[in-house]
Amino acid sequence: MAPSITLYTFPPSQNAVRPELALLEKGLPFEKVTVDFLKGEHRKPPLVDLNPRGQVPTLVYDAGGDPIAVCESIATIRFLDDMHPEPPLMPPVGEPRRRAQAIMRIEQFQAKLDPSNLFGSVIFGRKSREELRPRIDALEAELAHWESYAVGRRYLAGDQFTLADIAVFPLLMHFEALGFEYAKRTPALGAYVEACKERPSVLQSGWLDAFAAFVRDRAPEPVLAG
Ligand SMILES: N[C@@H](CCC(=O)N[C@@H](CS)C(=O)NCC(=O)O)C(=O)O
User: Is pTM, for the whole model, over 0.90?
Assistant: First the structure.
């Protein structure tokens, strides 16, 4: 029996788009439930009953019996790839170099790239470039590593679109929204970002438009420009 899958999401969220991309890549039907943060819906049922942290994405996977609530965006995409191996979103174990690359990029994303949270500090915290200077410098140094990872590859682990891309690409859009000019400063990473924007699952999700509208309404200071 096909599972019933419900995705609790907030349309502009770079975290919440990850399971959506994995679901679209795999052609799995799912229902989307929008949780409007701006109205405080994340602090109320049904979300807090499923995920006491009140965060999206939260994925409810019901294969009959007791539905499973999966939260943490990276956990959701790994879970979906484990439960629905076709088409695969990781390089096969028979290709250890590419598999190692995909695993490393996911870990490096979680350890080095995601915690910077510059976007939240600018959009919600209204912090200035001066206040954020040490974090901006650290992020720019980190992005130099990602430029080297992108050189000579369409995606982060070669020609195959993988969980590593689903992890990393949405966050890279945050930096673009803060004025980072990939084409000028990290051209290989820039080509990678453009390739991801054209990915059918990304286009089908509508996330780029939802994210662009969210950014447009808030007009963040372009702290990464220059
Ligand atoms: N590490 C989590 C972060 C999830 C997260 O911070 N989601 C945001 C939306 S982008 C959220 O739900 N924020 C509400 C809150 O933390 O109260 C993940 O990767 O899923």
Answer: yes
Q: Indicate if ligand 1 lies below 6 Å from the C-beta of 54.
A: yes
How confident is residue 160, by pLDDT bands cut at 50, 70 and 90? very high
Fill in the DSSP letter of residue 14.
Answer: T
Query: Which residue bears the tokens 């919600």?
Result: 124
CATH topology (fold) of 4-83: Glutaredoxin (3.40.30)
Which residues face 158 on adjacent strands?
155
Indicate whether residue 15 lines ligand 1 (CB < 6 A).
yes
Domain ranges of the chain: 4-83, 96-218
Query: Given a cut of 80, is residue 1 above it in pLDDT?
Result: no
Q: Whose CA is nearest to atom 5 of ligand 1?
A: 55
- Tell me the CATH architecture of domain 96-218: Up-down Bundle (1.20)
The SS3 assignment for 58 reads: strand
